[in-house]
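Quick note —
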Amino acid sequence: MRLVVQGSAISYSHLVHIHQLCNTSVQFVQTAQHAYYLANQTSIPAEIQNFCAEQHIDCAYVQDSQTIKNFGLCVMDMDSTLISIECIDEIADMVGLKPQVAAITERAMQGELDFAQSLRERVALLKGLNESDLMRVLNERLVLNPGAVEWIATCKKNNITTLLVSGGFTFFADRVKAMLGLDYAVSNSLEIVNGKLTGKILGDIVDAQTKANELIKLRDNLGLTAAQTIAIGDGANDLKMMSAAGIGIAYHAKPIVQAQATYAINYVGLDGVIGLLTT
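Predicted structure written out below.
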């Protein structure tokens, strides 16, 4: 096992203190500007976890077998994971309904509401919105999260297939797929008639089970084992796909997701996944 610590806040004194807490003769190895690991560790003492949290440093206890070369598939959520916004909240803002819609979004992500029902309720509130308003959200508000480009480039370099699977909308997911050069994208389709949203969703809703199913289907098509798969998400709707993967990574996630994830990244960007898997 190795102890991985990473974060822009890391200083030499932080590393010295963590090293002392580990009570080891092994020295830190630097793998990136803000990423380090200690080999041959057996557990992370609570003191280290508490210290790192106080100092805004991510720490994780990673199995030696979990290195980038041993994975073949990465499945990722979109909203608040690959991109910085919740698209439906920003669409709602166009018609002055962001507070109402965002409140439902938050409860669904915390696992307090059934995702499919909550999505239908939110989309119904968007009835009559112009398709051009979706383009405004795309052009004015959609931003990739820090480290997304670097993480996907690393996947490509290591022949890791990438899949975006989202409870959000195809209008945005297809564009994010193109922006990052992802291999596949699966998401929900908004019904648009004569340039206006009808307040309905076409076809079956991409929910938590669908996300897990898509991971398993692509994994099997690629001839991979569960251990060769990574899932990254931030909300309760991502938990099933994360549990179906070899490792589930909570990215700046809700508490319920962090509690069930293999690893949690709270302070660095998506390039932190590279730090977790690099030796």
